[in-house]
Amino acid sequence: VKMIVNNIFSDGIISEAMGQTDLPKNPDPTVPLMIAKGVGVAPADTYFIGDSEVDVLTGKNAGMITLAVSWGFRDRCVLEEAGPDFLFDTREELLNYFLNITN
After folding, report:
1. Which of 32, 48, 56, 82 is 20 to 30 A distant from 17 in Cα terms?
2. What is the pLDDT of residues 43-92, one digit of tens each?
3. What are the φ/ψ torsions at residue 57 (nearest 5 degrees)?
4. Which long-range contacts does 88-92 make (Cβ < 8 Å, 24+ apart)?
5. How many CB atoms within 10 Å of residue 94?
């Protein structure tokens, strides 16, 4: 996950990224809530990015803003049904979203 984040975003845009661990698995919100607390950001001000309906549910369970990307594990129609806050079809769209909210 960290390698993917570093390839997509420049330094300073993403505060923390974490892949699989021995902690509870998605859609349990334990890990995303732990990360938000660790960086000192309220869950409601935190973005959870994923490529599956389980990722969308995890972000929702944590009370986070859910961003889904259609170029990964699931097709766009599956992600739309999951109801993310935002759905992106390209890395450029995702990057532009973050650049626009940070400027």
Report:
1. 82
2. 999 999 999 999 999 999 999 999 999 998 899 999 999 999 999 999 89
3. -65, -40
4. 91/8
5. 20
pTM of the model: 0.82
Residue type, 28: D
pLDDT at 102: 66
- Measured CA angle at 71 (ends 68, 56), to 5 deg: 20
What would the 3-class secondary structure string for the chain be? Answer: CHHHHHHHCCCCCCCCCCCCCCCCCCCCCHHHHHHHHHHCCCHHHCEEEECCHHHHHHHHHCCCEEEEECCCCCCHHHHHHHCCCEEECCHHHHHHHHHHHHC
Are the CB atoms for 82 and 53 separated by under 8 Å? yes
Cα–Cα distance, 3 to 30 (Å, whole number)? 23
